[in-house]
Amino acid sequence: MNSILPEKPYDALIATITSTYDQGRLRAVQAVNVQLLETYWQIGRHIVEFEQAGSAKAGYGKSLIKQLATDLTLRFGKGFSRSNLIRIRQFYLLYPKGASLPHFLTWTHVVEFLKIDDPLERSFYEQQCSRERWSVRELMRQKNSALFLRLAASTDKEGILRLAQQGQLIEQPGDLLREPYVFEFLKIPEPYRVSELQLETLLCDHLQQFLLELGKGFTYVGRQYRITLNNTHYKVDLVFYHRILRCFVLIDLKINEVQHHDIGQMNLYLGYFANEENIEGDNPPIGIILSRHKDELLVEYATYQMNSQLFVQKYQLYLPNVEDLRRELELTLQEAEE
Predict the structure, then answer these.
(1) Hey, what CATH topology would domain 181-319 get?
(2) Which residue of 123, 190, 237, 310 could cross-link 164, Cys pair, CB 3.0 to 4.6 Å?
(3) Which domain of life is it from (predicted)?
(4) What is the DSSP letter of 80?
(5) Coil, helix or strand for 256?
């Protein structure tokens, strides 16, 4: 650096200014988001109150939104298309107590919420988005992969309502589980031809999306993690550490149906990690075998009186059938009412 200024103090100054600028810019963006949401909510309120007062029939009739889109676009330019005005009006109707959403959410986030008809499902994505600070892209991916329906399909009415009110809380090992896990982001063409090692490699190549599918709190440790017992080497496909549960999470991948010896092998891994890898403060490790197919009876017998931290879960390479999951959810809620 050609300067009479001391290099290290000057570099520190640059770093400090950069940090301050980035933080200020982030706060400015958040302030703009908050103000935009408040503005759109108020505009939605004006439109609805105009309609309810009967003015729409007198002046514009059913063409109110269309006329507003034309006039407001001429006056302000972008932001007042017919489709956006419909969403703005819907925003007010669905959030009548005010636009009290987390500051980091953008109008694009809100539009994704507004596309969800079911209030329980919409509430879940709002809560989960707030908890995990999803980007719009992440929110869209989780909606498309039917995360709420997948979680809700494996619980009862109380669990479904709790999901809608609080999002997915991670308090015990079972809270980590989803069925099926969906790996559509790998874009493996049908009919798939992939080995366990190739699947493992693809998941590591798409680690960000894989971590999003696993859920909040996972930290990647390694793949083909070697452990040695009596000069015999074993390898765990994938090892993670869960920050919230404070424990290792071991994952083995199976492209075919899981067998009893796969369960025994995972139990061995769990025993090794509990005794050889855990340090003070770590909780017992969790083992998840991910398989394309699962024989429930075999799993029940193979895990009889075995480690309660061992789970066998299904995964699929393509998006789930949303309508089937929705019917299952509706059936659960109906049965609870009877």
Answers:
(1) Trna Endonuclease; Chain: A, domain 1 (3.40.1350)
(2) 123
(3) Bacteria
(4) -
(5) coil
